[in-house]
Design brief:
The chain is globular, with a radius of gyration of 20 Å. Helix 9 runs parallel beside helix 11. Strand 3, helix 5 and strand 4 form a beta-alpha-beta unit. By secondary structure, it is of the alpha/beta class.
Length: about 350
């Protein structure tokens, strides 16, 4: 049997809520060419000259509002998921962040220390959907660090699981308890991306955002189309829960800059919905498997305030999968399946 290790990869978080740490984190995050996809010098001027100097203090305050005594919620929850998986494996499980700490090198080194003669590492990106600014950048970075430090083990990556039955079941069952309360609508809010990212990810060059109802017209482009994959997740989850179409809506959050991003925008719809008679709202955030700034602050705090101020009466954010037993079970199953595939290959 091959000697294996497992690494969970998430986005990352500042080391603390201090402005200097948030500034360092934002510089690393926004200088990623897959996040702000422009040439280096203009990106450098934009990020370090305009965005970060103004954004870092505000982001630090936002992080303070959701920070736990144990540290960053994203890091704490990722570690809890690591611990939950470790109970199911003799092989070591580590976590790595695309930005910040722990780094890929730290994770790889720990795996090699715990498993001398390590032959393979199975990587589970904690992003259900393929996007160049999340799944792709995390996977490519982990591969680059693997190559840079000339690690002797093979690196195997678990594919996006936006439509995987086990993921959909876990997501649906994490939502189901909240459906017992009366609600007018459930909003599926996904992290947004610029429209240009969708165009760039279109391997056909002629499908995404170029034909009518492109996300529901069969195409090879869907393999890397974030927009299509989010719609599939929403539709499969709604079907699993038996939700009627009029009770479900999908939006995109976290817009940055003035370029066109995927619509409709979550913040805009939160302001409009009460005027349309939606007074009691549930919000789920399936783009994230771990609660983080974008769910705990942007949705549960800021989004709630927008909705209630606009006339809404009840707002409930449904927690992410975090360490839900069905999610842990799905992750365990996938790792074992990928290990078996390689064992018989």
């Amino acid at each position: 049997m091959a000697k294996r290790g497992i690494v969970l990869v998430n986005l990352g978080s500042p080391d603390s809520t201090a402005v200097k740490d948030v500034r360092r984190y934002l510089n690393e995050f926004l200088m990623d060419e897959r996040v702000i996809d422009m040439s280096y010098i203009p990106r450098l001027l934009l990020v370090r000259g305009i965005i970060v100097p103004f954004r870092a203090p505000k982001s630090a305050e936002a992080y303070k509002s959701i920070w736990w005594k144990e540290g960053s919620p994203l890091i704490v929850l990722s570690k809890q998921l690591q611990e939950a998986l470790q109970k199911n494996f003799e092989e070591p499980v580590e976590i790595a962040m695309r930005y910040g700490n722990p780094s890929p090198k730290e994770a790889y080194d720990k795996l090699m220390q715990k498993m001398p003669g390590l032959e393979e590492v199975i990587m589970l990106p904690l992003y259900p959907h393929y996007a160049m600014s999340s799944y792709e950048t995390a996977v490519v970075y982990m591969q680059e660090m693997h190559k840079k430090y000339n690690y002797p083990f093979k690196l195997t990556t678990i594919a996006p699981y936006y439509n995987n039955n086990d993921y959909i079941n876990a997501l649906a069952e994490s939502i189901r308890p909240f459906l017992h309360q009366y609600f007018d609508k459930i909003l599926f809010s996904y992290h947004g991306v610029p429209e240009r990212h969708i165009y760039k990810g279109d391997i056909t060059g002629a499908h995404c955002l170029k034909i009518n109802d492109c996300c529901h017209a069969a195409s090879p482009a869907h393999a890397q189309c974030y927009r299509h994959q989010t719609f599939v997740t929403t539709e499969l989850t709604a079907a699993a829960l038996g939700l009627p179409a009029e009770k479900v809506e999908q939006t995109f959050q976290s817009r940055l800059g003035r370029d066109p991003w995927l619509t409709p925008y979550t913040a805009q719809r939160l302001e409009e919905l009460p005027k349309e008679g939606v007074k009691k709202l549930l919000v789920a955030c399936p783009a994230f498997v771990s609660d983080c700034l974008e769910t705990l602050e942007e949705i549960a705090e800021e989004g709630k305030e927008i909705f209630l101020h606009a006339g809404g009466e009840n707002f409930t954010m449904i927690p992410c999968l975090n360490t839900h037993p069905l999610w842990v079970g799905a992750a365990v199953k996938w790792v074992k399946e990928y290990a078996n595939i390689n064992q018989t290959a």
